[in-house]
Amino acid sequence: MPAQEQLYTPVLVIGTGIAGCTTALVLADMGVEVTLIAAGKNEKDANSWLAQGGIIYKAEHGDPKSLEQDIFTAGHRHNNPKAVRFLAEKGPAVVEEILFKRLQIPFAQHAVSPRIELEWELTREGGHAAPRILYCADHTGSTIMDSLLEAVLKSPNIRLLRGMSAVDLLT
Hints:
Blueprint: E1 11-14, H1 18-29, E2 34-37, E3 55-56, H2 64-74, H3 81-102, E4 109-111, E5 118-120, E6 133-134, H4 140-154, E7 158-161
Parallel strand pairs: 1-2, 2-7
Antiparallel strand pairs: 3-6, 4-5
Helix pairs in contact: 1-4, 2-3
């Protein structure tokens, strides 16, 4: 897009990592027209593609208070209390809705009975008192991003612009 060209959009999402793509996808699923911009010529330049660890879910018993305390610990208590409480209470359901149901991310699982019932294999990361981290071997970020980007590119309500930066924004 030439520098002098102006673009009007109901919603602008800056960044094509997990947060940006998820935000764009959720809004687009609600019928909102979204413009998503990537700084690089390739949306795979986002750091989320390189994430190897995992993504926070919930412990086996799913206690939000325990999750809240672990988030405070991991953040050395420099966290925003309202944001932490919201994440601890709402986050696991969002993981289920978007990553399990919508995108069907193949997180590690293990058999828990002779009938080969599977459950999520959770691990621990820094600051967490209980295993609550979902992962895909050592390529969690790229596995999530592959599915997210596919959904973003298929959405008729998302316009993806590559090689762009947000310099002047008029609201």
